[in-house]
């Protein structure tokens, strides 16, 4: 990970412990107004394909998003060779958030996770996101797709790779007002039956933790609504012990 792309290019730094912090507070202009509606969790879905049974393309289940005023986040967790950017059914322009994050644990560069975001998105009924699997059509993949309503700003982001353990803690994000926090956990072990539970008031909204025998990409998505400015993180408790790629994103209306 050499830095961030596009509009977050100048906003990345590493802590002494090696955690990548992506500070975007000054990188994205506020879209809201003083009386803007409160930011909140919107529609969401998680599409998964198991190893050897995947198809090209992979398309998320349709959700109904707001016609305007939402931000969108989508992840592609799976084979590194499936490297094309997402396409959605409302023609939004997606930007990658940070660099690809390769899975460790002896996988080499075969697997990674990529995150993409849209601010001020267009939406509506039957909203889907598509990834063309140009490298390995039959390969395993997990694709969480989340809408954050009335979110004009991605205020702060932290991405870290937690070492092997049963408790894995994200980096922190800082908010300046009401915010919707999105936390995403990606397990890196060859484990078919996994648990992953967040603390600090986060609630899981989608997960793929009980894998089929032919394997898949472990993933869990959680959120928390906060009413005031503050500094927030989340720890995931899981078993068996493994490492995990952790994302924490803070969306605000302004």
Explain what this protein looks like in three dimensions.
This protein has one domain (6-252). 0% of the residues lie in helices and 49% in strands. The chain has no helices and 19 strands. The strands form four sheets. Strands 1, 2, 12, 14, 15, 16, 17 and 19 form an eight-stranded antiparallel β-sheet that branches. Strands 3, 5, 7, 8, 9 and 11 form a six-stranded antiparallel β-sheet that branches. A three-stranded antiparallel β-sheet has the order 4-10-6, with no helix packed on it. The radius of gyration is 17 Å and the shape is globular. The two termini are 29 Å apart.
Tell me the number of structural domains.
1
Along the chain, the helix and strand elements come as EEEEEEEEEEEEEEEEEEE
The share of residues in extended strands comes to over 45%
Tally of DSSP helical segments: 0
Overall morphology:
globular
How far is it from the N-terminal to the C-terminal residue, by CA?
Answer: 29 Å
- Give the total of beta strands: 19
The percentage helix is under 10%
The secondary-structure class comes to: mainly beta
Rg on CA atoms, Å: 17 Å
Main beta-sheet annotation = 8 strands, antiparallel
Q: What is the residue-mean pLDDT, rounded to a whole number?
A: 89
Low-pLDDT stretches: 1-19, 22-33
Chain oligomer state: single chain
